[in-house]
Amino acid sequence: MQTTTLKIHPKDNIEVALVDLKAGDMILSEDKQIALLGDVAAKHKFALQDLNPGDDVLMYGVLVGRAVLPITTGEPVTTQNIKHASGDYELRERKTDWLMPDLSAWKDRTFMGYHRADGSVGVANHWLVIPLVFCENRNVQVIQDAFAKELGYQTDTSPERDHIKQLVELYRSGKNADEILAADLNGVASLKAKDQKLFSNVDGIKFLNHSLGCAGIKEDTRGLCGLLAGYITHANVAGATVLSLGCQNAQIDMLKEEIYKRDPSFSKPLYLLEQQQIGSETELLNQAIKKTFTGLIEANKNTRKSAPLSKLCVGLECGGSDGFSGISANPSLGHVSDIIVGLGGSVILSEFPELCGVEQELSDRCIDDETAGRFIHLMRSYYDKAKALGSGFDSNPSAGNVRDGLITDAIKSAGAAKKGGTSPVADVLDYPEKVRKPGLTLLCTPGSDVESTTAEVGSGATIVVFTTGLGTPTGNPITPVVKVSTNTKLYNKMTDIIDIDAGTVISGDESINEAGERILEHIIRVASGEEKAKAVTGGHDDFIPWKRGISL
Fold first, then answer.
1. Is the pLDDT assigned to residue 154 strictly greater than 50?
2. What is the CA 223 to chain-centroid distance, rounded?
3. Which of 28, 61, 270, 278 is most exposed, with minimal Cβ within 10 Å?
4. Is residue 103 scored above 70 in pLDDT?
5. Tell me, what's the pLDDT at 396?
6. What is the pLDDT of residues 357-384, one digit of tens each?
């Protein structure tokens, strides 16, 4: 029989409804009988004791709000009777002891990945085409259309499509890279496209259009170059073609500097084309298409090989969260995080506005005072910027979050932090720095789903696990994004975009650890190319760099 309510922490003075409850229902909370004074929808909360205005509201054992009206035992907790509040935090003593999960079932497990020269291992093999400035978005789109049409996704013709056809035929006839680069594409007759996949070891050519690169502050320009460098050096990427206009703030030398900062021995194929230097737009496109095609020839030489799970770097993300996120999908993913960390792998917890209220716990878990101090500095700086622009972290929950039980940012945050498990915090990074240590890394990003996912991948996440209670179709161009539902109703409704159901925890059919280990098995299959994430099959290639002015 399913449990109908849940008190998450012994200190809590509110409790969660796991099913729809009616006014007058009698609830047994520990050894206390409580009569509900109003309807409480599943995912929402009710008071376990009388609260007066100004009294603390506790959930997950932390401060998540304060009463603004008198609240009687059994009364539903709403946006009308409580407001957001969170505890203060400071640098304190380290609390890095943790109970590592049993690793016996996982220590000898492997996945089949793409091994790179820097020692990283990817779960996919992509080629990138990137504009260094928004002025080149149109040219990137032309190249994208040409390659897409040749693959049969569109029917109208273009010179670029014919160029791709010609390159395919040259490759099929045995021409090498130098001969292909020397070919006069304008003088070769158009050829019939082939249906079969030409480069069997290349998962895709990905195009990262954006709106930055010029006319912005230096911080945004440097951040963009760092992010793009993170994608170019990423383990899921074989090489890249970069289009530059020439006069923009985001210069090629700045991009190179960021690349070598992340990989001092960088050796991947990288083609840098500057339009104002080349001159003709037609010539720019011809060179870009030919060089990209020869890059694909090189990329196709990569094959999957066995790698230990310690080579995984897992991004921890949530979006469209609900009142079940913090008690089903997120703690299940937290168990996965602890296993990956125990094995020597890396996990990334981001979305700093959604760590509001648990700052003290996370700072205490940092491995040393320097790391804790950096986390506190980044959190306070971000909060101060948000307040200066009229929106504190309390503005973070969306309308959907509130409707489904996350009525304060601290309630949302305390549940969101569960994705990070219980291990010590090994490192704290500012956007768009790259992961540099195994273990749990905290990465400063917005709470915005796509901006945060984009950033996690730029920092090195080779696979992202994305929990959702309302349903979110987002993905990433180069990294598989595996979706986990917090409730079974959502999973059954949106099986086209959601991979795994963690609603089994709510129904009592699985424990948190059992659900987490099922998620990890799925991660291994996706990492090995045995199964595709729904975000991949759905073509959800979302990419939004963070413009640091402020985003929440």
1. no
2. 17
3. 28
4. yes
5. 76
6. 999 999 999 999 999 999 999 999 999 9
Q: Are strands 62-67 and 82-83 parallel, antiparallel or unpaired?
A: antiparallel
Reference 2, options 502, 486, 507; nearest CA is 507
Q: Is the pLDDT of residue 199 over 50?
A: yes
Nearest to 414 by CA among 7, 86, 100, 90: 86
Residue tagged 């760099």 (tokens): 545
Q: Rounded to the nearest 5 degrees, what angle is found at the Cα of 94, between the Cα atoms of 90 and 96? A: 130
| DSSP codes joined into one string, 449-480 | HHHHHHHHHHTT-SEEEEEESS------SSS-
Q: For residue 241, what is the enclosing H or E element?
A: strand 237-244
Which amino acid type is present at position 188? V
Q: Say if residues 350 and 442 touch (Cβ distance below 8 Å).
A: yes
Nearest to 111 by CA among 202, 226, 198, 235: 235
Give residue 93's identity as a one-letter amino acid code. E
Tokens of 283: 């010539």
Asked if pLDDT for residue 147 goes beyond 70, the answer is: yes
SS3 482: strand
Measure the CA–CA gap between 336 and 503, rounded to whole angstroms.
16
Query: Residue 486 class from Cβ within 10 Å (0-12 exposed, 13-18 middle, 19+ buried)?
Result: buried
- The answer to whether the Cα torsion of 181, 145, 466, 427 is positive or negative is positive
471 vs 493: CA distance, rounded Å: 9
Residue whose entry in the numeric block shows the structure tokens 């509900």: 36
**Distance between CA atoms of residues 512 and 502, nearest Å:** 9
351 Cβ partners below 8 Å, 6+ apart? 317, 318, 416, 445, 446, 447, 452
In this prediction the pTM is 0.91
Are 129 and 148 contacting, i.e. CB atoms less than 8 angstroms apart?
no
The residue with tokens 């948190």 is: 512
DSSP annotation of 51: B
Least Cα distance to 399 among 321, 317, 489 occurs for 321
Residue matched to tokens 């099986």: 495
| Amino acid residing at 17 | A
> Rounded to whole angstroms, how far apart are CA atoms 74 and 48?
6
DSSP codes, 65-107: EEESS-B-TTPEE-TTTEE----------------PPP-TTTT
41: left (phi > 0), else alpha (psi -120 to 50), else beta? beta
What length is written for the chain? 552
End-to-end alpha carbon distance in the chain? 40
